[in-house]
Structures are given as structure tokens and as C-alpha cells.
């Protein structure tokens, strides 16, 4: 079985994630191609798409949210994702058990005496008037019936687990600050969520595996589990294994992939890219070594925004008062520093709507000295 080294996996990931060349895809197609974008920080998907698409206009994504073609909802890993309406309707039932399990796990003691089906029914009754509500409002509406759990426990399990919800605009619109207001997903989209087929081969899971590999492969089943929060989808993987190809990584793990998916030459030049907080290019794997060194692995879950140089996490970045500030994690060559500055200036212009293109690159670490 062919062994793919770390650099080969890196270039495959960059290609699947539209980070080798900015794509000319429509925004809706890009969101689908990526299997959704991590979106608990409302403005971060705009940077993620700017780094991946040519001539990306933020208004296009805002319009898709207003037109109900893209939604913000709890899905993979019980985190907020930006996904297409078609995908969330197709996938939500397959995630129900995981969402409920993780919701209960966060508040197990407080919810021990709560019948969750009764709680879900009470929550749906509250929402039957068609009025959007915050998590706190949902909790207050049912607190008389369940006075013992803390409001946070009731509200979060209702909104993020028991009732398929969408976070309504203006939350998530470009350069807009807004609190979270929720409505049932089917009410917002005017379509019912697809029921889960009673088929042991897990056809919805099969579709998820194919979509994951298209956006993240080659990958191990542990990586699939890390992305989705689902338990590895063994029946689905088994059902489609004959149509997949297999590799090994340098640790000996089996990696699965779609046969015709891009696997670029490891010497392919990778441009500098600025990634937003919690980007799935990092979080979409159990083993993130293909894109980030072990010493900096924690950046992917801490909410740090990172810069890819030669395809790997090599700096962090922030933006304030029109200036993008870069904090290198290693020494840059003169050419790398120039490319980081050029891409950072373009990002500063994007984030400021063309008002400013200032970029500041901080001092580089001294080899052998811990930061």
C-alpha cells in the first residue's frame, strides 16, 4: 500500500480546501464543496472564503443567509457551522443522536431528572407562535416546569441538541453585530428535515463519507470522526469501501480516499494563506500533523487565527484599527516575509472595505528559544 508522507498529505489538504489556488466557484458551491465552514465566530467565515475564492464579495454570503440558502446551525461536533440549506436538511437527522448525547454530557447531573422528549415537546410548543427566541428566552419559557436545572442547561440543550434550530440573520451578516435568535430549521427553510432511512448500510452516512473525503481526504476514519463528531460511520465506510482507494501515512494508519480526487505533487508550491479562527482545514482531522507542528497544535482549538507559509501553520495574526498584525512562529526567508506582507496587506484591505492595507510583521523567534 502506497505511503503518503506529511508533505503529500499537506498538498492534498490544501487542494481539497481550495488553498492552493483561489477558486472561481460561486459562494454557495464553495460552502457545499467544503462541507460547511466552522462559524461560532460570526465574521470568521468571510475571511475563510476570501482566502479560498477569487473576487469574493462579502455581500454575496450575507445575501445567501438572508435568502435562506445558507444557514448557521449546530451540526458537526455540536459546534456552529455555516452550511447550505440542502446539506443541513439532508444531514441533520444523522447528527441527532450525537447532538443529544453531547448536550446531555455537558449537563448530565443537572438534567438527570428531566425527560428530554418532554422538554423538546415543551420547547416546540413555545416556538409554535413563529417568534424567534434567544437561548435565555427558551430557558425562561420552560423553567416553571423544570425549576431545578440552571437556565443555561435548559436553554443550551433545547437550542443546540433537542430542536433543530437555525440562528437567524442579522447574526452572521458582514460587519454586523447581533445576538443569537433561533427558529426551528424546518420553519425557517419551509421544508421538512429528511428522515433518517431505516437502512443498516447508512446511506446518509455514505454521503457524508464521500463529502468528507472530497473536502479533506486522504484521511483515516479517526479523522472523519474528529470532523463530524459521529462514531466513525463504520457501516457507511464498509458499504462504500470498494469504491475507495487506500493509502498509509508515515505512522502506518490506513487512509481512505476517492479515487479521482486531487493528490498534488508534494513539491507543488503553496501560497501564503491567512486562515480564520477554528478553520476546518485544521479542525477537520484527529491527526493535524499534516498542517501544523505538534508544538503549535493548541492554536487550532484556542481560537487563534493562523497563517500558512509553505502550507503549514507558521504564524498567528490579528486585525485591529485597519492593521493586520502577524506573529511569526518561525524564521521567514526574505521571500516568505515579502509574501506574508503582500497577502496580509490584501487581507487588511478586505477587512476594512478598502480603507487600509497596513500590515505589521512581528519579531521572529530565535531558533532553540521557546516563545
The dominant shape is globular
Global structural class: alpha+beta
What level of helicity do the residues show?
25-40%
Number of strands: 13
Task: Encode the helix/strand succession as letters.
Answer: EHHEHHEEHHHHEEHHHHEEEHHEEEHE
State Rg. 21 Å
The average pLDDT is 95
Please provide a written account of the structure.
The chain is an alpha+beta fold and 371 residues long. Helix content is 40%, strand content 15%. The protein is built from 15 helices and 13 strands. It has helices at residues 6-16, 27-33, 44-50, 58-66, 85-106, 116-127, 135-142, 151-162, 185-189, 203-216, 221-228, 234-240, 280-283, 299-302, 334-351, and strands spanning 3-4, 37-38, 70-74, 80-84, 165-167, 182-184, 245-249, 254-257, 273-275, 305-309, 312-320, 323-328, 358-361. 42% of the residues are buried.
Key features of this structure:
single chain, three-stranded mixed sheet, 15% strand, five-stranded mixed sheet, globular, 15 helices, 371 residues, alpha+beta
Outline the secondary-structure elements.
Layout: E1 3-4, H1 6-16, H2 27-33, E2 37-38, H3 44-50, H4 58-66, E3 70-74, E4 80-84, H5 85-106, H6 116-127, H7 135-142, H8 151-162, E5 165-167, E6 182-184, H9 185-189, H10 203-216, H11 221-228, H12 234-240, E7 245-249, E8 254-257, E9 273-275, H13 280-283, H14 299-302, E10 305-309, E11 312-320, E12 323-328, H15 334-351, E13 358-361
Parallel strand pairs: 1-7, 12-13
Antiparallel strand pairs: 2-4, 3-4, 5-6, 7-8, 9-10, 10-11, 11-12
Amino acid at each position: 500500500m502506497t505511503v503518503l508522507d506529511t508533505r503529500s498529505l499537506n498538498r492534498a489538504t490544501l487542494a481539497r480546501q481550495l488553498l492552493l489556488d483561489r477558486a472561481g466557484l460561486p459562494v454557495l458551491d464553495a460552502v457545499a464543496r467544503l462541507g460547511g465552514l466552522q462559524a461560532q465566530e460570526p465574521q470568521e467565515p468571510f475571511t475563510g472564503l476570501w482566502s479560498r475564492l477569487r473576487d469574493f464579495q462579502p455581500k454575496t454570503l450575507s445575501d445567501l443567509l438572508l435568502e435562506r440558502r445558507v444557514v448557521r446551525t449546530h451540526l458537526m461536533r455540536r459546534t456552529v457551522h455555516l452550511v447550505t440549506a440542502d446539506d443541513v436538511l439532508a444531514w441533520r437527522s444523522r447528527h441527532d443522536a450525537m447532538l443529544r448525547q453531547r448536550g446531555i454530557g455537558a449537563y448530565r447531573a443537572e438534567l438527570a431528572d428531566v425527560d428530554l422528549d418532554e422538554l423538546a415537546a415543551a420547547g416546540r410548543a413555545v416556538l409554535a407562535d413563529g417568534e424567534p427566541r434567544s437561548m435565555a428566552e427558551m430557558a425562561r419559557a420552560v423553567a416553571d416546569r423544570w425549576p431545578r436545572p440552571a437556565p443555561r442547561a435548559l436553554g443550551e440543550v433545547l437550542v443546540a441538541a433537542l430542536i433543530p434550530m437555525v440562528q437567524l440573520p442579522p447574526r452572521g451578516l458582514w460587519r454586523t453585530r447581533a445576538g443569537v435568535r433561533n427558529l426551528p430549521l424546518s420553519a425557517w427553510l419551509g421544508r421538512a428535515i429528511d428522515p433518517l432511512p431505516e437502512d443498516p448500510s447508512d446511506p446518509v452516512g455514505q454521503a457524508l463519507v464521500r463529502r468528507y473525503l472530497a473536502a479533506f481526504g486522504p484521511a483515516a476514519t479517526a479523522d472523519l470522526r474528529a470532523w463530524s463528531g459521529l462514531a466513525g460511520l463504520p457501516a457507511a465506510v464498509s458499504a462504500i469501501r470498494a469504491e475507495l482507494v487506500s493509502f498509509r501515512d508515515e505512522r502506518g494508519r490506513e487512509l481512505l480516499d476517492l479515487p479521482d480526487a486531487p493528490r498534488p505533487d508534494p513539491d507543488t508550491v503553496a501560497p501564503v494563506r491567512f486562515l480564520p479562527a477554528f478553520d476546518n482545514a485544521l479542525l477537520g482531522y484527529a491527526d493535524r500533523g499534516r498542517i501544523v507542528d505538534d508544538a503549535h497544535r493548541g492554536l487550532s482549538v484556542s481560537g487563534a487565527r493562523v497563517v500558512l507559509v509553505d502550507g503549514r501553520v507558521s504564524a498567528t495574526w490579528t486585525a485591529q484599527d485597519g492593521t493586520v498584525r502577524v506573529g511569526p512562529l518561525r524564521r521567514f526567508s526574505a521571500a516568505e516575509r515579502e509574501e506574508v506582507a503582500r497577502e496580509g496587506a490584501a487581507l487588511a484591505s478586505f477587512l476594512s472595505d478598502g480603507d487600509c492595507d497596513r500590515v505589521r510583521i512581528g519579531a521572529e523567534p530565535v531558533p532553540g528559544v521557546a516563545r
